[in-house]
Write a structure and sequence with these properties.
Rossmann fold, about 230 residues, alpha/beta, about 20% strand, elongated, 4-stranded parallel beta sheet, 6-stranded mixed beta sheet
Length: about 230
């Protein structure tokens, strides 16, 4: 794309550690660059405040569990900044504002099957876990399938609001999801790139809105998404 005379570039990096070459080339060519969903140092960013998402999830979890309860985190790939920031926000909120105990954290690719296996293994090693924070919707669906037969209820909070996750939320299989509107991110990215091409600066972070969605909110949120 950079060699085809484009005027601007919006990228959602799959691996934040393999970006230097195309970032440098875009800058050398004077092509405005914006990242969406994944944040890179020094590059304008559009998407969620992922640290805040982790904090929101921890606050919601604390409402559902008694003091002293054990919780775990199933995070996505360490090659993606979003999952690491969500993990950090959740961990920091628990430490600073609750009496909950974080006893296990895993970081794997954001795959359904892997999340199911990891959550089952985590609960075997830590049968006292009563809450799980999962940093993507796909992983959340894997986790709920792996934990439904658990003798004691596991409170599950995930991130992102694709339709199958909202359906599971409506059925009470998930306690809450932190929303992330891809349409809002895409529109904001285009608006910002237009401003940049018109000579306005777009430096810094540009955050979309995020909400805690629970069972009672799921239908209304789905209608808004549709």
């Amino acid at each position: 794309l950079l060699q085809e005379g484009i005027d601007a570039l919006i990228v959602s990096p799959v691996n934040i550690h393999h970006t230097a070459q195309w970032v440098e080339e875009a800058q050398q060519r004077g092509i405005p660059l914006l990242t969406i969903d994944e944040k890179l140092p020094g590059i304008p960013y559009v998407g969620s405040d992922n640290y805040c998402i982790g904090q929101m999830a921890a606050e919601e979890m604390a409402k559902r569990l008694p003091a002293g309860a054990s919780v775990g985190i199933l995070a996505g790939s360490v090659n993606q900044d979003a999952h690491m920031k969500r993990t950090a926000g959740f961990r920091d909120y628990l430490r600073e504002h609750t009496d909950l105990h974080l006893v296990a954290v895993t970081a794997e690719d954001t795959k359904y099957r892997q999340a199911a296996l990891e959550s089952a293994d985590m609960l075997r090693q830590h049968p006292d876990i009563r809450g799980l924070f999962v940093t993507s919707a796909v992983m959340t669906l894997g986790v709920i399938d792996a934990t439904e037969g658990n003798q004691l209820p596991i409170h599950i909070i995930g991130v992102d609001t694709q339709s199958d996750a909202l359906a599971a939320l409506r059925l009470g299989r998930i306690d809450a999801m932190i929303s992330q509107d891809g349409h809002e991110s895409g529109k904001m990215a285009i608006d910002l790139i237009v401003k940049e091409l018109q000579g306005e600066g777009i430096d810094g972070d540009h955050f979309i809105s995020n909400e805690v969605i629970t069972k009672g909110d799921a239908d209304a949120y789905q209608m808004k998404e549709d």
